[in-house]
Amino acid sequence: MIRRRVSTRLIPLPYISKIGASTFATQAASFLQDACESSIDWNNLGFGLMETDYMYTIKCGGKDDDFKAGKLIRYGNIELSPCAGVLNYGQGLFEGIKAYRREGGGVFLFRPQENAIRMQKGAQRMCMPSPSTAQFVDAVKQTALANKRWIPPPGKGSLYIRPLLFGSGPVLGLAPASEYTFLVYASPVGNYFKEGTAPLNLYVEDEFHRATRGGAGGVKSITNYAPVLKAISRARDRGFSDVLYLDSVNKRNIEEVSSCNIFMLKGNVLSTPEINGSILEGITRKSIMDIATNLVYRVEERSITIEDVMDADEVFCTGTAVGVAPVGSITYKGNRVAYKTSTPLVSKKLYSRLVDIQTGVVEDDKGWVVEIN
Ligand code: COI
User: Fold this and answer.
1) pTM for the whole thing?
2) Exposure winner among 28, 66, 221, 346, fewest CB in 10 A?
3) pLDDT at residue 276 above 70?
């Protein structure tokens, strides 16, 4: 278990605002990095919260107001009305973005504009105002740089940045909140699954569903996540890594895993469930489709039945937190199908390519990577 040690000397906030976040980060980086590296076991990062130094926050009135200038504040608890829209009616969205260090130096984000746009689409669905793309990306950059000493060394993990948008104003009758908060915090992370990079064993759930047509499954609403906890805990108690959900209408087409998208490979054809309102438009999903097309796989977004996926050559999951995770088996109604998990795996090839783009090993000819220092 990794613990944050007590001595975490902070650069005072007034100093940050005076010299600017990036100057602050450059000047302070080396001693802070040293201080932090000595107290964290970077080799054993999992996916749990490690409290960092700063978070970014910005508020906005109701739907006719705009988000104005935000600011970095010390990381810590926030105060909310017991009647806040998010607490009472689940009016909230979140995003996930990773900041990485590179071997040769530098800190990079991967496609943060995509997260900004996804949050804007989600905000429309959830009747919330949203920060502009520039505000969103700036907030993410500032949060990463202010917490730079928490970004793991190259190859050891990343700083997972979590933007939240939620109704913070009080609202008793069911209606949009009267005030909104956009808040960005961060935590260093390693592998999402306790399996590390080992193949996942998925359990197909046919009682609980993740999302329904016309619901909010297609956006990153906080309301999509608590309902799957029951299914996850049941699957884990039975020894599975996670749950694969079926569509709620016919209980026949696969949709997603609890925290990530899913792909199957059959021959040279890579397929993933089409975006239909109940499947999240993952940014890793989109990037892997692009990379696979360039590597001359045929890529299809389509309805995939449970029988199709049980007959696949290879199956894998994608997500920001998860990365690209191979699936070793799927169990459905008592039948277990095992997939090839020894190399050469196509999922491994696709993930390596993605990581090579993120880490600058191959040229980023798509403009996906954003340097922030
Ligand atoms: C992410 O991949 O960033 C997610 O938001 C999934 C989350 C459940 C950890």
Assistant:
1) 0.90
2) 66
3) yes
